[in-house]
Amino acid sequence: MVLIAGAAMLALLIWTLVRQRPQDVPWAPLDLGQPVGLFTGRKLTALTQYRAACLALLDKAGIAYTALPPRSTGGQCGYDDGVRFATGGARSVGYRPASLGVSCPVAASLALWEWNSVQPAARALLGAEVVAIDHLGSYNCRRINGRSSSDWSEHARANAVDIAGFRLSDGRRISVLRDWRDQGKAGQFLRRVRDEACDLFATTLSPDYNAAHADHFHLDQAYRGSMGWRACR
User: Can you give the pTM of this predicted structure?
Assistant: First the structure.
């Protein structure tokens, strides 16, 4: 078994070197400037345990942001790693409403999603750039599905965001609610960026999951250990 495991790790290392994608191996430090690899998503999720390291990664990548003051709303709600994207810097899209505040790991994941998925898909399928992303909010002190006895939602720690649509440079708006079932380019775009969000977020839920998500993508970085369970629907 030791020999088999060693051979597997050697094969992975060689494959990574050939592809020149350091994020394909678990021990390579996370770098937001590198292409998304096999372990990028797990490294992003692990940032929930390392606030200073997460902020340093945003700084290194040139992402403009404002660090939010810690917030506490009862015993289970609040955050101490919240950020709000600022204008300028390495990112090119805004969020509507502009007051979006999310945990640092979610911010890092959104930036990678924009660079590696959202913009390339918009150019390839829609012939336009995404200039803004519509959202339904992040921080909300509530339990999952709003039930009184369920587990606390990742929204209760600003560790989740709900994405409702995309505004394009040519004036079009792509809506999760309206366009998810579309068989043309709009629907293809939404399904592609949903699939690729699964590589970056611990949990990605779409209209395919249930009726409660008919109008948005739920993206979160719920930490369940370094090799924890991940959801993609």
Answer: 0.90
- Give me the chain's average pLDDT, please: 91
Residue 178: count of CB within 10 angstroms of its CB: 14
Cα dist. 5→8, 9, 12, 153 in Å? Answer: 5, 6, 11, 37
Summarised one tens digit per residue, pLDDT across range 26-43 is: 899 999 999 999 999 999
Buried b (16+ CB within 10 A) or exposed e, 134-161: bbbbbbbbbeeeeeeeeeebbbbbbbbb
Q: Rounded distance, CA 33 to CA 78, Å?
A: 30
DSSP state of 77: -
Q: Kindly give, in sequence order, each residue whose CB lies less than 8 Å from that of residue 223, ignoring residues fewer than 6 positions away.
A: 45, 46, 48, 49, 202
Residues in the chain: 233
Closest to 113 in 3D by CA, of 30, 196, 213, 33: 196
Q: Give residue-wise pLDDT tens across range 32-72.
A: 999 999 999 999 999 999 999 999 999 999 999 999 999 99
Inter-residue contact 193 to 79 (CB < 8 Å)? no
CA 144, chain centre distance (Å): 19
- CA proximity to 82, closest of 197, 163, 159, 161: 159
